Design the sequence.
């Protein structure tokens, strides 16, 4: 009895220490970042829509604003993304790798809004399918510039990287109703569905040794969330909005396979996984000011990601502790403007968005900043064509990428949106 | 009381007795089943037998004994007489199917020098024969010790768990 007690006491610090050494990668969730703008007007105005939405995107940004839509509206959009990465691998001296690029064309959004005839005030119901998170990305590093693109010619060296292909869709149902002359309220239920195909690669040539590792992880996402929004008109030119997004429960099913080739001999590994986590409440507030044909709008969004909670798949106590350690709360900012030329049927837009990365373990040198622009053209009384462009840039780093060697990873994207909307 | 009233009262009493008795037996039956199979450790996933009506069966793995019970259709199958075999299976797989995380590249690099992580070291002229064209298959089948690789690969990361999982899944 005493012996076991002594052993227990001796081991206690070790056990505690074991609990303390969490692997940050085990709690990394790609769905905590990589937000996309929903709808092309929003993409042109950097997402500043909580008080300024005038189309079906309101179902995502603030369902209370659906009451502003008095005609049936149908809309659809495509997006095209060019994603770039350049990594500085901090050997001595540091190696600046080649630029890596991946391009993807995706459906972006569809929605239908149905105003309901009422005696007084407004009521609108809506359905939408929106791509809300973009997982398409690329990352490359190499031991000497250009090695990855032609390893056999370059000879001794190594390189590798990561690919992600996928995204998250929200299927939303909801509506907005005017509850007084100047106030309206809205609700939505959002069902999430999507996937992420992640590949990790590492190749090496050293003399006659060759080494090649391919690790594929297919995550398929399902989830559910919802939100309630309020909108208030403080005079004819000034509008305010606020939205509370409920916790998002996400379930991820995983399939994993790995192919490891060393000097021509191949080993394979397979497995499956499943886990569940909950993203916390998110709060947004916005203001919009109309001055003749000019609209200026601004939003803030606050989410405390240290409240992410793992429900299964990891040791909950230590995982949730790691969440507190490696995540932070973030405040996103969107500023957008719009100017209309009614006689020409033309509207031009611009904006700026700051969308910080909540996972702080990767040293974030520069949070994602996006500059946006766009226009819409009224082809006919009922038909409108929309275009938007986004330029984003951010820089992160892995403090301990490989044996204490760090990386500095620059990312930048160019996104183009094209869409059509129809009102009758 | 008239005769027909007595008769009706009797019929109602019998009817109620049958109903109450039936319900009582039905609701009591869980404990009987629990007693009989409580010592078994594993059960096949149970299911409703819709073809037979309101029957429920479960079977201890490795035995041919089926336990049939007349259950009302609304009875929650997951309550399963206090032995929650269905959700036990779920819980089991939930525990086993842990999250497969993205890996730190640290865990991907082998430790035996297969990858020269010190690029400033001058290459050994005896081994650094760099072919100008892609290596043919025959040229890269040199024997090399992979024990270190294997050791590293099975240490500390998910792969260990995953091989366990495969075994588990193979059984199922």
Sequence:
């Amino acid at each position: 009895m005493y012996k076991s007690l002594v052993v227990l006491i001796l081991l206690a610090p070790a056990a505690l220490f074991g609990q303390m050494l969490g692997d940050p990668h085990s709690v990394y969730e790609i769905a905590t970042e990589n937000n996309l703008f929903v709808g092309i007007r929003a993409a042109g105005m950097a997402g500043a829509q909580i008080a300024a939405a005038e189309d079906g995107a309101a179902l995502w940004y603030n369902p209370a604003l659906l009451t502003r839509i008095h005609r049936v509206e149908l809309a659809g959009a495509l997006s095209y993304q060019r994603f770039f990465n350049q990594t500085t691998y901090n050997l001595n001296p540091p190696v600046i790798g080649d630029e890596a690029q991946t391009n993807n064309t995706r459906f972006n959004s569809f929605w239908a809004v149905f105003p309901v005839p009422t005696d007084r005030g407004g009521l609108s119901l809506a359905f939408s399918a929106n791509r809300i998170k973009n997982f398409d990305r690329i990352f490359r590093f190499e031991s000497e510039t250009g090695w990855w693109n032609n390893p056999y010619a370059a000879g001794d060296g190594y390189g590798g990287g990561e690919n992600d292909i996928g995204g998250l869709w929200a299927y939303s149902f909801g509506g907005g109703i005017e509850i007084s002359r100047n106030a309206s309220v809205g609700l939505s239920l959002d069902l999430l569905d999507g996937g992420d195909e992640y590949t990790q690669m590492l190749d090496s040539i050293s003399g006659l040794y060759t080494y090649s590792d391919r690790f594929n992880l297919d995550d398929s996402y399902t989830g559910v969330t919802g939100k309630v929004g309020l909108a208030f008109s403080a005079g004819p030119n000034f509008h305010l909005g606020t939205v509370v997004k409920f916790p998002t429960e996400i379930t991820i099913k995983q399939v994993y396979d790995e192919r490891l080739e060393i000097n021509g001999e191949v080993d394979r590994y397979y497995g499956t996984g499943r886990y569940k986590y909950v993203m916390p409440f998110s709060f947004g507030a916005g203001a919009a000011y109309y001055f003749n044909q000019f609209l200026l709008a601004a939003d803030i969004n606050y989410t405390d990601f240290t409240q992410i909670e793992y429900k299964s798949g990891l040791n909950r106590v230590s995982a949730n502790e790691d969440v507190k350690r490696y995540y932070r709360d973030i405040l996103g900012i969107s500023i957008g403007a719009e100017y209309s030329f009614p006689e020409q049927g033309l509207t031009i837009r611009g904006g700026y968005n700051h969308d910080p990365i909540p996972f702080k373990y990767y040293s974030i040198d520069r949070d994602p900043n996006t500059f946006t622009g766009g226009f819409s053209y009224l082809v006919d009384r009922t038909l409108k064509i929309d275009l938007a462009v986004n330029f984003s840039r951010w820089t992160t780093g892995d403090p301990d990428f490989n044996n204490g060697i760090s990386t500095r990873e620059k990312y930048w994207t160019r996104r183009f949106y094209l869409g059509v909307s129809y009102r009758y | 009381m008239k005769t027909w009233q007595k008769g009706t009262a009797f019929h109602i009493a019998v009817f109620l007795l049958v109903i109450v008795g039936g319900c009582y037996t039905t609701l009591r039956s869980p404990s009987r089943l629990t007693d009989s199979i409580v010592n078994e450790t594993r059960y096949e996933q149970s299911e409703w037998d819709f073809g037979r009506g309101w029957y429920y069966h479960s079977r201890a793995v490795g035995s041919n004994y089926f336990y049939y019970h007349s259950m009302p259709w609304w009875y929650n199958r997951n309550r399963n007489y206090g032995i929650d075999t269905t959700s036990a299976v779920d819980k089991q797989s939930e525990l086993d199917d842990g999250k497969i995380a993205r890996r730190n590249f640290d865990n991907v690099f082998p430790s035996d020098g297969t990858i020269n992580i010190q690029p400033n070291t001058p290459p050994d002229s005896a081994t650094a024969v760099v072919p100008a064209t892609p290596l043919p298959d025959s040229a890269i089948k040199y024997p090399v010790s992979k024990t270190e690789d294997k050791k590293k690969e099975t240490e500390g990361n998910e792969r260990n768990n995953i091989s366990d999982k495969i075994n588990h899944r193979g059984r199922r």
Notes: Chain A touches chain B through 57 residues (CB under 8 Å). Confidence is low (pLDDT under 50) at residues 1-20 of chain A.
